[in-house]
Give the backbone structure.
Amino acid sequence: MRFLACLKKDLRLLTGGGIRSILFLLLPMLLALIMTLSMSGVASASVRLQSFDIAVRDEDDTIMSRLLISQLENVKLFERVIRLKEGEQPPENGRCAACVTIPKDFFYDLYEMKDTDVVISLNEDMPNEAGMVRSAFTSLIGILEENQRIYYAASRVRYGELDSERTRELYEAYSSASAEDALNRLSFFELSGVYQKGFDSKKLFFGASIISMLMMFIPLAGLRSISEETGSGLLDRFRTAGGSAWMAVLSKLVIAFVMTFVPALSAAWLLGLGNIAQLIPTLIVCFLLSFSFFLFVCSLAGRPQTAQLVGNVIMLIMLTLGGALFPYELLPAPLKSVSDLMLPRIILRAMERPYLGRGSAETLAGLIPLLIAAACFFIAALPFMRKRRRA
Amino acid sequence: MNETVLSLNNVTVDYGKERILDGVSLEVRAGEILGVRGRNGAGKTTLMEIMAGILKPRTGTRSVEPGLALCYVPQEISLYTSLTGRQNLEFWAESYGLHGKREKARVDYLLQLMGLTEKAKKRVETYSGGMKRRLNMAAALVVTPQLLLLDEPTVGADAASVEVMLSTVKRLAERGAAVVLISHITDDIEGYCTRVIELSEGKLKCVSSPV
């Protein structure tokens, strides 16, 4: 009963009711839309105009693999194709978007129609370019596989059962033709097309901006009353009524969670941002981090107006540095490293992960430091949630 | 003699190196209005917070009757200023377990008692100082208290509001509630008190006889 009273009160405090409530929920979305429309054009232009490097490690070391690599050098999108020796790592600095490893017997396995694939390590600092490389190679291998099937079938029809010598001859002839054909078909424009189909950066930018704003805007709005509650003795009064500070905070957490996740997940669904279930763990942890951080800020602030003002400034800085209001690609290099710590960037990267071929286990492991940070902010807020004492 | 609803025994409170309450012992009995006076910084608010159970003493004990309906009105206007007067009272009524028709009837009664019915749907931030004080007190009366603790209830209130609040306190005491009233302006409260104690430098200096 007491907790229900808190939920009702916190909902009223957060929304204010009527038109104010509707505007309250629409504001982050409108802001994100305006910023996306004004900024994403600049971001996309900068991304598309710059070519980048890729590194290639040739473990197959056959005529076909060497031919494939030399053909890659003709793709205008790739500034340089860096050939790596065995054990050599791709350069950490610079604009190397991905490292492609062609495994031993790759082409032969392909010809034999065995399951095989190139290994691609992607540079998370260049998600757009890395996504493009991944999409391009997925298509390339697809074309190669299809070609090999056709050649193999044609050979069987023409020559019947193949002995090993005949197989080797045909393999070399058809593999080089197949690699050439696949790369010719995969021009720059087709690469862009493949990329756009699988990885719409504009949509992700828009989605991440909306979700980031909701993740910060709503916990801050819900928590600013905590400074009123501690400063004016409301929390003490609530304790004498049988309540507790835990109950008061939990109520705000529940209301902020619902008010954040209903519009955030709706936006993700409406925008078609891939597998939403895969995003949920990241969003929950980001929400907890945002909530704990603003709990700390609001408990420290003393007055709701101060809490709101300080919170707004912090939120603006985080949204800008995190790439939600300003394209990450256009940030100066020193700010890019700070950007990785900002919630909008964390959310955007989580959205990009499925497109970059990252698994859930890796994503979940990356959330542990965020959970620890959330716990630290929460613990740091506790001493400030007591009323400032006077005699 | 009426029964004791709250007692403090040899209570000591320190903030850092400063001693705020020094061996305070007292009893509050049903039906009495106990006035606590003292200069600023004498330890009155700390004493009230010990009585309310918000603050734990460093040494000494506080005992209250089990299941006692305790209502506390802090010195600050402890209301949600962005909610309306009615919404504030609804929150406190629900916090004390009232709901449905009983809740509505009690809220309506308190708004009328404090002369706030017309302003019930306005946000508290639009209220005058006196209206806020009255609403602050109304929030403590959503249940009929057995022990009512009022910390400087008359500060910033106009004469009419003071009259409404103190006459309400008197009626509650006549019905058996124990009331503790804190004020640094003694004239305000002493006419209503059945007993007055004085705090000076954390010690209980003098206890006056009932008026």
